[in-house]
Structures are given as structure tokens and as C-alpha cells.
Amino acid sequence: MTAPTNQRPARRQSIVWFIVFHVAVAAGILLFPFYRIGSAAVFSVIPSCILHDLFHVYCPFCGGTRALDELLHFHLLESLRYHPLAVVFAALLAVWYVFAWARLFRGKSPFIAISKPLSVALTVVVVAFWLLRNLLLIVFHIDPLGDLVGFWN
Ligand SMILES: [Zn+2]
């Protein structure tokens, strides 16, 4: 069965984006060792995070790079310690990736649209995590990242 003609350009465009996704992931994997080498020099010039450096609180993404770094080294517990949501989103990305290939082989676009309720739910989870992490830091001095507990003690 062939797709209607008006869906072919959209499918072709989504396949192009799927290829772009693979090129970006491959580039990220190839460049990651250079990031690890150069990050100290880069972050000595550029502030790594404005909320972290100026206000001594974590932004929703603080620890994400370290979590990804640990995850790429298969250190799951360390990755969870740095940023649990990064691990969850990496797992969701892996599941999406399997389904993307399945959808592609069935003649559909590899991408699925995220519904508005799901995007709202994801935003709520990220904001709740952000608030909880800073509440634990400021009120209870619990800091799994270990960067800011010295300031709040
Ligand atoms: Zn941050």
C-alpha cells in the first residue's frame, strides 16, 4: 500500500530529519571526548550556569552533562545521582528510537507528535524536580551534586 501523494513530501522531510538526528548523535559521540578535555578551559571563561554561579541554586538542567557523561560510561547510579531526569529522558529516547525504526519500516514518519497534555506533564515534572532539588538543597542541605551545599550550610 502506498501513502497518499500529499503525505509523501512530509514523510520524505521526516526521513531527512531522522538522518539529521543520526548525524547529530554521531557528531556528539565523536566530539564528546574533546568536550571532556576542553570543558575545564571553556568553563573557566564562560559561566557554566547563571543560576548556579550567581544565585547558588540549581537550574533544571544542572548536572545533566555529568549525568550524560556517567551514563555513557555505564555508571547508572552516578548518573542518577547527578540528574535522575536525564536518565529517564535517555531511556525514553531509546524507546522512541526503537519505535522510530519500526514506524519507518511500516512506511510512516519516524517521528511521533507529542500531545499537548504530555508536553504539559513533562514540563510539570521538570519544574517539580527543579523545585524539589533546590528545596532539598536550601532547607535540608541535601545536595547529590555536591556543588552548592557548602554555600547553604
Ligand atoms: Zn544549571
In brief, what are we looking at here?
This protein is mainly α. Helices cover 73% and strands 0% of the residues. The chain is globular.
Structure characterization notes:
With 153 residues, this protein is mainly α. The protein has one domain (7-152). The chain has seven helices and no strands. It has helices spanning 8-45, 50-55, 64-72, 76-82, 84-105, 116-140, 149-152. Helix 3 (64-72) runs antiparallel to helix 4 (76-82) and helix 4 (76-82) crosses helix 5. The longest helix has 38 residues, at 8-45. It is globular, with a radius of gyration of 19 Å. The model has no long low-confidence stretch (mean pLDDT 86). Zinc ion binds at residues 49, 51-52, 58-59, 61-62. The site of zinc ion has 7 residues, from helix 2.
Beta-strand portion reads under 5%
Give the H and E element order. Answer: HHHHHHH
Distinct small molecules bound, one entry per kind = zinc ion
Number of helices: 7
Mean pLDDT: 86
Low-pLDDT runs: none
Count of discrete domains: 1
Characterize the quaternary organization of these chains. single chain
| Proportion of residues in helical segments | over 70%
- What is the CA–CA distance across the termini? 66 Å
Largest sheet: none
Radius of gyration: 19 Å
Shape: globular
Tell me how many strands there are: 0
> Which structural class is indicated by helix and strand composition?
mainly alpha
List the helices and strands and how they pair.
Elements: H1 8-45, H2 50-55, H3 64-72, H4 76-82, H5 84-105, H6 116-140, H7 149-152
What characteristics describe this protein?
7 helices, 153 residues, binds zinc ion, mainly alpha
